[in-house]
Design goal:
With 234 residues, the chain is an alpha/beta fold. It has one domain: Rossmann fold (3-Layer(aba) Sandwich), CATH 3.40.50. It has nine helices and ten strands. The strands form two sheets. It has a six-stranded mixed sheet, sandwiched between helices. Helix 6 links the parallel strand 7 and strand 8. Helix 3 packs across helix 4. The longest helix is centred in the last third of the chain and has 17 residues.
Length: 234
């Protein structure tokens, strides 16, 4: 049963400065939603709110299955996950880092081992399986973060600037990972990026966050927005 997300009139402010004013959108489909916006536009805040890590000052974040509102409990939260730009890793092996989230969900033995090895192969880190995670490069660390996230087979995967602060080679690997996840159609992916070309390569739906509001659009509208002076300042 597919999980769906509905954001309604989300508002958020910090120290009386409004970051999000009126963000409303239904994330009804599998695929990749890309949110673009200037630095400080509230993209990361919106992602954290949607991922239930932060509460809005006003508005609602609701998850549905077949039109039935889901309780915001531990079972729901275990079906969604977020990968931040500078992820934290445990001072232990790559294997143990990936296994942690699976163990707290009750996986053990052969099933646990196979899942960890499968996702590390998927992100190209199987050869690092015994290495201490703190010794990975920044690009490898980001891939480890994605491996930990997809190991739990999330219904919603939030990626906040997944290729920022990493080199071109790892950027290509991560984009390929996202495209493969997109083809699998098991998760709805919501990501942020500053890169217009990346948004077009990866996104099924492109949204713009401007002046605290979220603007969706069809391809024609997106092309108009992409050619506007607004994007020159992203």
């Amino acid at each position: 049963m597919r999980l769906q997300l509905r954001l309604s009139n989300i508002r958020k402010s910090y120290r009386n400065v409004s970051v999000l004013i009126d963000c409303t959108y239904n994330f009804d489909n599998t695929g990749v939603y890309v949110i673009m916006g200037k630095n400080g536009s509230g993209k990361s805040t919106l992602l954290r709110i949607a991922a239930l890590l932060e509460s809005p000052n006003y508005g609602s974040v609701e998850y549905y299955i077949n039109g039935v509102l889901q309780r915001t409990d531990i079972q729901l939260k275990r079906r969604i996950t977020i990968v931040l730009p500078k992820i934290g890793v445990f001072n232990t092996s790559v294997y143990t880092n990936v296994a942690f989230g699976l163990k707290i969900r009750g996986l053990r033995g052969k099933e646990l081992d196979e899942r960890v090895r499968d996702v590390l192969s998927f992100v190209g880190l199987h050869h690092k399986i015994k290495q201490n995670a703190l010794t990975l490069s920044s690009g490898e660390t980001q891939r480890l973060g994605i491996a930990r996230a997809i190991a739990i087979n999330p219904a919603f995967l939030f990626l906040d600037e997944p290729t920022s602060f990493i080199d071109e080679e790892n950027t290509k690997v991560i984009e390929d990972i996202i495209l493969q996840l997109k083809d699998d159609k098991k998760s709805t992916i919501i990501m942020t990026t500053h890169d217009k070309n990346q948004a077009e390569r990866l996104g099924d739906f492109i949204l713009l966050l401007n002046k605290g509001m979220l603007f969706p659009g069809d391809k024609q509208a997106q092309n108009t927005l992409f050619s506007s002076s607004y994007l020159e300042n992203i």
